[in-house]
Design goal:
Strand order of the largest sheet: 1-2-3-5-4
Shape: globular
Number of strands: 5
Structural class: alpha+beta
Radius of gyration: 17 Å
Number of helices: 6
Order of helices and strands: EEHHHEHHEHE
Distance between the termini: 17 Å
Strand content: 15-25%
Helix content: 25-40%
């Protein structure tokens, strides 16, 4: 599987980490056959405290198999955040680790969302899959907590894991990046965000 670097997303200046972006393309059927286990990952999602509390998380209100299989091509994007030595050395409590990782992920998710939604607009019918965290409502709690519809139904996007994809295997096999896990009081060398754009347009290329 060939990969390519995407430089147009931009850099992370003065954030405590460097940002590198790698993309690859795979037919959706091949991706679903080799990298999706709906029951397994639904089970894992049920163990998460956010299960059923956000419109970006399971359970989804649509048939996830049909939703994915309506597309032909999957453009998968990995954003790798490699922490610098200063950040690694000064992040030495569990609270600090959570804060640093959360801020890095939010930064990258904001970048990924803007980048992939640009392709949605350019290629109608395409759809992006973002992280399980939602940025649409800012600091407001998700309306799902009150059993209310999403405030942004046209803009909300689920994650790849929400429809059953194995992100660890995706990152390792398709993008050549092993996912790293730190300790409660110690950052890993890097963390990764995996997003994607699914489409039926054979001419679409992430650049």
């Amino acid at each position: 599987m060939s990969t390519r670097e995407i430089t147009s997303i931009g850099e992370a200046k003065d954030k405590g980490f460097s940002l590198s972006n790698i993309a690859t393309t795979i037919p959706v059927k091949e991706y679903a056959d080799g990298y999706r286990d709906i029951e397994k990952f639904l089970g894992l999602c049920k163990q998460c405290p956010r299960f059923g509390k956000s419109w970006t998380c399971p359970p989804c209100e649509f048939d996830v198999t049909e939703y994915v299989e309506q597309f032909k091509y999957a453009h998968i994007l990995s954003m790798k955040m490699t922490f610098d030595e200063e950040t690694m050395n000064k992040t030495n409590t569990a609270e600090d680790v959570r804060t640093v990782c959360d801020e890095a992920m939010k930064f990258s998710l904001t970048k990924a969302s803007a980048y992939l939604r640009k392709y949605e607009r350019k290629y109608p019918g395409s759809i992006c899959f973002l992280g399980s965290r939602c940025l649409l409502c800012g600091s407001k709690p998700c309306a799902r907590l009150e059993n209310k519809p999403c405030r942004h139904p046209k803009d909300v996007r689920v994650s790849l894991e929400a429809v059953g994809f194995d992100l660890g295997k995706t990152s390792q096999d398709l993008l050549g990046i092993e996912m790293k896990w730190g300790k409660p009081d110690r950052l890993p060398e890097y963390i990764t965000l995996i997003t994607a754009l699914l489409t039926n347009d054979e001419n679409l290329v992430l650049t």
